Amino acid sequence: HGKENVDSRHSRGRGGETTRFHTVNVAQPVRFSRKCPTGWHHYEGTASCYRVYLNGENYWDAVQTCQRVNGSLATFTADQELRFILAQEWDLEEKTFVRKDQGRFWVGYQYVITSRNHSLEGHWEVAYKGSSEVFLPPDPIFGTAMSENENVLCAQLQCFHFPTLRHHGLHSWYAENCYEKSSFLCKRSQTCVDIKDNIVDEGYYFTPKGNDPCLSCTCHNGEPEMCVAALCERPQGCQQYRKDPKECCKFTCLDP
């Protein structure tokens, strides 16, 4: 399966017949030290990678940029994940920020307005179905003025550049006009991990973690793709046997 370089070599066997040997070279899983692409921060608690993009974009453009790198605007599953994000030394000193000690970025929530009486009443929602809804933000600070017909605002997380403020978890949530331009935080899964917990580089064959050690896939953008499964014949001369959960077509005979 996959790319194969077949090197046919000939030698003379007994009786003068030609014996042909085929040497097949197939890319094997490799290990490397990082679990996320360059420029991304890894968090073991969710096996995810995070990156702040400083090229100011509106919310909808930010969504598409994150999707192009096999991710989405970040949502958070627990307080621990949010504290990890706040503690990172993101490059927040950008000329588009009002103050150099703080910065805001789009994240994957939207504030749905349900009433416009004396104050804007509403609730947070995860922007995209399929995102985890374990953690939702508290009541927001409302950003720039908006038109009367807008019923949805988009979430900005504000964090601080100073280390003491970062490590104390000081932050704010803003409900902002979705067409304002801002930096944004993307989240994606870490790179491929094989059945033996090895990290697999882009483009290499590997067996994903799961119940089938005979599945071989290609690592593409941190996901298994173009998977092929091998079928194993049962071991000969053995009535009772056990499959090896991490080796394809490897059995242990349980007969007396």
Automatic annotation (TrEMBL):
SUPFAM superfamilies: C-type lectin-like
Gene3D superfamilies tied to this protein: Mannose-Binding Protein A, subunit A
PROSITE patterns cross-referenced by the UniProt entry: C_TYPE_LECTIN_2
Gene Ontology CC annotations of this record: membrane
CDD domains per UniProt: CLECT_DGCR2_like
Ranges for domain C-type lectin: 45-187
Top-level taxonomic group: Eukaryota
Protein name stated in the entry: IDD protein
